[in-house]
Amino acid sequence: MKTIKAFAPATVANVSCGFDVFGFAVEQPGDEVTLTLKKEPGVVVKKIEGDGGRLPLAPEKNTASVAVLAFLEAIDRKDEGVEIYLKKNLPLGSGMGSSAASAAAALVGINHLLGEPLQRKELLPFAMEAERVACGSAHADNVAPSLLGGFVLIRGYDPLDVVGIPTPEDLYCTLVHPHLELKTEDSRQVLRTSIPLKDAITQWGNIAGLVAGLMKPDFGLIGRSLKDVIAEPVRALLIPGFDEIKEKAVETGALGCGISGSGPTIFALSTERELASRTGKVIQQQFQKLKLESEVYVSKINTRGAKVV
Amino acid sequence: MKTIKAFAPATVANVSCGFDVFGFAVEQPGDEVTLTLKKEPGVVVKKIEGDGGRLPLAPEKNTASVAVLAFLEAIDRKDEGVEIYLKKNLPLGSGMGSSAASAAAALVGINHLLGEPLQRKELLPFAMEAERVACGSAHADNVAPSLLGGFVLIRGYDPLDVVGIPTPEDLYCTLVHPHLELKTEDSRQVLRTSIPLKDAITQWGNIAGLVAGLMKPDFGLIGRSLKDVIAEPVRALLIPGFDEIKEKAVETGALGCGISGSGPTIFALSTERELASRTGKVIQQQFQKLKLESEVYVSKINTRGAKVV
Question: At which positions is ATP bound (chains A, B) (predicted)?
Fold first, then answer.
């Protein structure tokens, strides 16, 4: 009986100005998936821990098993028997790429168990399929960084074109997760399907600036580019006290601050771990004023992505 | 009597995916401006050559003099007497940044004549003022590269945030100017003021990809990113045979091909001078089939910008 455990990190999608095309991975938190090869064919989700009983065990609905099923079909090994044990450390509906992390860990695990038939990048379509099942859209801005690590640009979806963007040394991420839950699906629905050309121009200036800032690196430019005129103005309405939180984070010394993925988790980037920690405390205090509990996670940017542990 | 001559290069704005935020300069062609300090106060456009008598001599209407007037006002020397002689080598209404080149050359010239009171980057607002007068919008994606050289990102306009993007070695530009004239103002009017979010996402994936491609450098990525789903589909209708031209340019070996600024000039980028020349011939042949005369310019990317000659 072969068994293996894999870890995949939380991710920040959008990164303010890169809606649907940009994301990065953090060191912690992350999901753990244990996979065991069995004699009996079929993929089974044996147990899920940490989800409060809310995630589906049905293999065609759980993101980890959906990803594994898509992978097995692609490598023509549908008859494999796989038992999945999923340990959720990421809160659901948090905007930290919870569904993506489970799928990424499961894929890295099963690929390893079966002797690495595919390259890391080749696992992406199966993780995207899991995203489609989990939240209705096969976006890659969480699964790509969770699988590959670092900052990842999805240059295009048709065909899929994934570009790793070098991560500057000394870049730290603060994540603050308030005890509110937003479904990605709902959070996408508040967005307009048509936007002013003027706002689009602002946004593509900023995403280009963010990529240039990361690559130079130029932390001032990174900070100036961390602006979102598309999703944030609408989604911020779902997060109590957002504008003040952002202001305080930047006052504390963070380069920038925004909504992680579709929220409600807040992310901030800082050039020192100590600044990132202080920013976390300041944001948490803001939520406390509104009687909202929250967790704070501080970590370096994860440049390796999901891994076998 | 102090006199000086300055040159400023043609520029390609938009560069397919960077509408209003991205541009680059070429070595040739460019405009030449000769400035002479006079005793009598006031800015005078003495003579313009190469415009077929079509550009205004009135100082408040000509881009070179508008830029000089704005500069003199800013440095509090409105009483200077300046005589301007403008030699246009850039065709008007061509999409090669004709108005920008005249303004940039005039500014570099007057700044030099008066002992360099301002840094190169500080000249930008005056050149933008000239653009506003020339075509109704104070866009910086021609004036910034014409002044500064290389690829330039206008990260934002409020406040103005101009970012130089490193230029890879061995990048050549082909410009083919068909004898058609489009006014920037008209060419802007065909654009919609509202665009589908889906298209905006495609565009910001591409501009981020183009910046990453230039900085890595990764010529394949540059080529894949040179796509425009916003302005090109509309503006291409004003350029006969555009789709086939583009196809042929890429077949010939160009990394990508698009409309320079608001057109009708076509630009292509190639990794070898010989490829860039061949691409120029192929595009010219396509225009010939439609009985359209054209000029071809092939040059390296200009990384220094406007200069005193």
Answer: 91-101
